[in-house]
Amino acid sequence: MQQLIECVPNFSEGNDMNIINQITAAIESVEGVRLLNVDPGKATNRTVVTMVGEPQPVIEAAYRAIKKAGELIDMSRHKGEHPRMGATDVCPLIPIANISMEETAAYAQQLAKRVGEELQLPVYLYEAAQPDKSRSNLSVIRAGEYEGFSKKIKLPEWKPDFGPAAFDLKRGATVIGARDFLVAYNVNLNTTSTRRANAIAFDIREAGRVKRIDGKVVNDENGKPVNIPGSLKAVKAIGWFIEEYGIAQISINLTNINITPVHIAFDEACKKANERGIRVTGSELVGLIPLKAMTDAGKYFLKKQKRSTGVSGKELIKIAVKSMGLDELAPFKPEERIIEYMLANKADSKLVSMTLTDFADETASESPAPGGGSISAYIGSLGISLATMVANLSSHKKGWDERWEEFSDWADKGEYYKNELLKLVDADTRAFNQIMAAFGLPKSSDAEKAARTKAIQDATKYAIEVPYKVMQLACDSLEVIKAMADVGNPNSVSDAGVGALCARSAVMGAFMNVRINASGYDDKAYVNDIITKGKAIENKAIAFEAEIIKIVNEKIGV
Hints:
alpha+beta, 7-stranded mixed β-sheet, single chain, about 50% helix, 3 domains, Formiminotransferase-cyclodeaminase, Chain B, domain 1, Alpha-Beta Plaits, Four Helix Bundle (Hemerythrin (Met), subunit A)
């Protein structure tokens, strides 16, 4: 499977777009690397770039960008709010798919070695790429910043990992490493005071602050300063004033969003700001964020309102953006900010992205795909969508307020089935296309014939598995549909009934596709097993649907 890493270099230039464009052009000159985001900041005088691809092309692109930044940026003239030590201040590699942190760290070390040796630039390793854990923390490495490095680099304990142990006046030094996904996030305040913003940052960041009494540092029995930890784990934060916006911000790095998600950081910042008489007015995302972080945030804020969380991903993102004020300073465009959206292949959702009319026209055309398999998956998605609607209507029905969570749970299940079935609409058509492509392979030699036969069999098996998965999902979705017919809003019971008809049709239609595709598959033991299981699913769905229709008819009563 394809290995993917993300690289997020930070360059010490946020104003001159000519320089920024030359650096990003160096990245885009490497085939196989996708430039996802370029986020310049004027007040910080810093640009965060996000790229993704397979490891070797990514580290080549990073090398070219570091080289170009060193040629164009003069650190002796640099001014900015963000801590920095070099033209390319930091260059982390992040494992994204099918690659371990250890492997990613090895690529970071490979990049650092090349930069140090070929560009003669002082390079420090950090996080997972740094074997010496006493100097793996970025803030420790960067302490003193560019201005202090002429002395720091001469200290034996701060000899660079690669490159010369000599201060580079123009380029400074750079830090290269491997780390988990980090979310850079700024919280906006209704104050211009950096000191007050810093106070809130110290309240929430894991490192906290040094304890003081009457302004004097309190030491422990060993003479070391006593530390008061902040309220959030896996959080780094500082306060600064952004002249561009005329406000102070809390600049936050969320180093592990599984420990402290973005919505928890936002709420905690609001709480601590309020305790100091300051109001949070919104927030700002720097770079990209995983989809789950946004949908989790949406669910979090809906739960606080005692509203159903079983709504579309698009709606969850909208709730998250509005709740955290992510659009206060600039429009928040999910397609440009969410990493999965940036990586998505539009061809994978060609059919489900169509309008209803275009989808119907495409189905009715002389093209053999989409066919019955795709339509079965789509019917199944519509069936469970109706049940999800009933669950959401029930969750805020007047007089049922205490039952909102019960129906929210059902709606969550419905959303899962709907989304999975929608994926299979296009998957079934891809399966058909794979079979046709396999039949078109050359067959002149024995080797070509063998390769063609194998390709046909592999494609046929996939074409069996896709509608079989439709059967499983549509049948399982009948549990939600039955519950909504039984205990959901009685005014919507007919909707649950139509959902049941759709789900049963999806199962039966998909089973027809399983059977017709199975007729061309050579492994008869596999075929017999899948047909036996398919018949059991079909019978279960028919019985399930009959139960639901009985409930519906009894409730309608006419």
